[in-house]
Structure prediction request, 299 residues.
Amino acid sequence: MKITSYLFIAAALTVVSCGGEKKESLFDKMIKEGGKRAKEVSSEPKNVKIADIFNPDNKYERNETLVFEGYIGQVPSTVSTSGGKMNIKIYERRNQTLGDYVNLGLSVGTGKNEVESLPEKYKQEDLHVYADDNTKLGVGDKIRITATDIYISTGYYSLEGYKIEKIDEESVDESFKNAVALTSALIHDTSVHEVYGYMDGVLSIPSVFFTMNNYLGLKVKTTTNKDFETVDIQLGSGPSTMDELPSSYTSKDLKVRDHKGNLIGAGKKVRIYGTWERYSFVSSTGLGGQFKAEEIVVL
Prediction:
């Protein structure tokens, strides 16, 4: 994994003296007003949900202030920074890595409402976001965000955050009511490009497995959907994750946790919630898309 920095002209209007001393940039002057951003922001922040931001019927002024909740997403393989800002992904659900997300721009630093600079080679646990009360947060934490500078383009949603608050969540069960049964008919319906769904089955270690992007493909025996032979489970130590398998393993090394963080017994039937996302290309596998597990519930 690496970090790529981009320098935008708009953010680089800097006057440099003959002696090489860097003076305050025009961009810095533009955003300063008593230590705050000079842009006019809504005096009455609007409470919305992430789904509202994605809804094309909702129109937002760029300088509106929105307040919404979401989860800090995983760090991608390449992170872009510019103008002292870094984007982090905010998802609607815990453990979500597919589907819609908001790009939240935060200032790089270790102060409140900032994100710490990542090392050249980083892991997921290296992402440190600091809340308004200086609480250190990371991937998977639920937060309340106050943000402005709304930018929406085709498939791209971004805001600039200036207040981050940690939310202590007791349960994720509420999100389950929005999931639909992930049937074979559904994933072969080419009009469906993305869906939050579930399938029931039993997980086990396949004879051949691989890990990719912090996921491991486990064998799934399911009658819910005949197309799936494996399902991608996130590696980790938190709820709805699994331990990485050793090079020499037996069935006893399979340690998968449910949505409450409890180990799931061997052979237990589970309901796997996650996002199905159709590929934008024709796949040689014939499946046409991918499914990433988000939550696992023992039935």
Remarks:
- Residues 127 and 138 are 6 Å apart (CA to CA).
- DSSP finds three helices and 18 strands in the chain.
